[in-house]
Amino acid sequence: MKDVKPKGGLNAEIQSRIGHQLRAMYDDVVRQGVPDRFAELIRKLDGAEAQAQIAGDPGKNEGGE
Amino acid sequence: MPLTDSLRDDILASVPSLRAFAISLSGNGDRADDLVQETLLRALANIDSFQVGSNLPAWLFTILRNLFRSDYRKRRREVEDADGSYAKTLKTQPAQNAHLEFEEFRAALEKLPQDQREALILVGASGFSYEDAATICGCAVGTIKSRVNRARSKLSALLYVDGAEDFGPDDTVRAVIGGSGG
Fold it and tell me: What residue stretches are annotated with the RNA polymerase sigma factor 70 region 4 type domain (chain B) (predicted)?
């Protein structure tokens, strides 16, 4: 099936399918909204606390699901 | 600027697309959420350096992108979790055909060089302009354009030429083919 191989320009249909797949993949995640973990984090922190978290133990705060 | 309530809300509103970007980059949901958390911490810690009126999503994406790249350098020798961890981040599992197609697309995306992958995602999925994508990646607009073009060519080759049979037709065509036998 060598005849489908795009040479210079891409087949328009293939391009639009790639674009569609890419957005579908991305939008699946976007539609999940903001997980509680991050809503909590932002609610609790102001700049100074964030600084302390980075300096301290950034990976430990995994309380929520 | 100081962290006002409205800025806080704007940051929160960027979280869904930051996660999508992180997952598209890393292909790994858990690692992506760690990246997002680190991004938020950095952003809040450096909020004073954010200029009022400048592009907040672009600023946040820049932080995430830079974190990912330094993280990636550290981890590049580790074995990737390639078996469907991305799918686990979905709330609803897609139907099996769609799921398979999805996994193959994700796998193809991961085969792209990192520069090309991030350019394609920023422009093709996040909806940034070429100019914003260039700012985020710290390169020229022309460089972004050529990376996006090369990414598209390579994906097309991976999915529709070399792997044409594996990938198969889209859902509509599949449904028609599948339904014509009865």
Answer: 103-155
Q: Do B160 and A58 touch (CB under 8 A)?
A: no
Assembly ipTM: 0.74
Please count the other Cβ atoms lying within 10 Å of the Cβ belonging to residue B177.
11
Pairwise CB contact (< 8 Å): A22 & B8: no
Tokens of B94: 């897609």
Are residues A58 and B38, on separate chains, in Cβ contact within 8 Å?
Answer: yes
Q: Which helix (H) or strand (E) holds A21?
A: helix A12-30
Give dist(CA A49, CA A42) in Å, integer: 10
- Rounded to an integer, what distance in angstroms lies between the CA atom of residue B74 and that of residue B70? 6
pTM exceeding the 0.80 threshold for the entire prediction? no
**CATH says B94-182 is which class?**
mainly alpha
Give the count of Cβ contacts less than 8 A between chain A and B.
Answer: 127
Domain locations along chain B = 1-77, 94-182
Cross-chain residue pair A30–B20, CB shorter than 8 Å: yes
| Chain B residues with beta carbon closer than 8 angstroms to that of A49 | 44
Which residues neighbour B165 within 8 Å (Cβ) at sequence distance 6 or greater?
none
Question: Which tens digit of pLDDT belongs to each residue from B23-56?
Answer: 999 888 888 999 999 999 999 999 999 988 899 9
For the segment(s) B1-77, the CATH number from 1.10.530.10, 3.30.1020.10, 2.40.50.90, 1.10.1740.10 is 1.10.1740.10
Domain residue spans of chain A: 2-55
Chain B residues within 8 A of A59 when measuring between CB atoms = 34
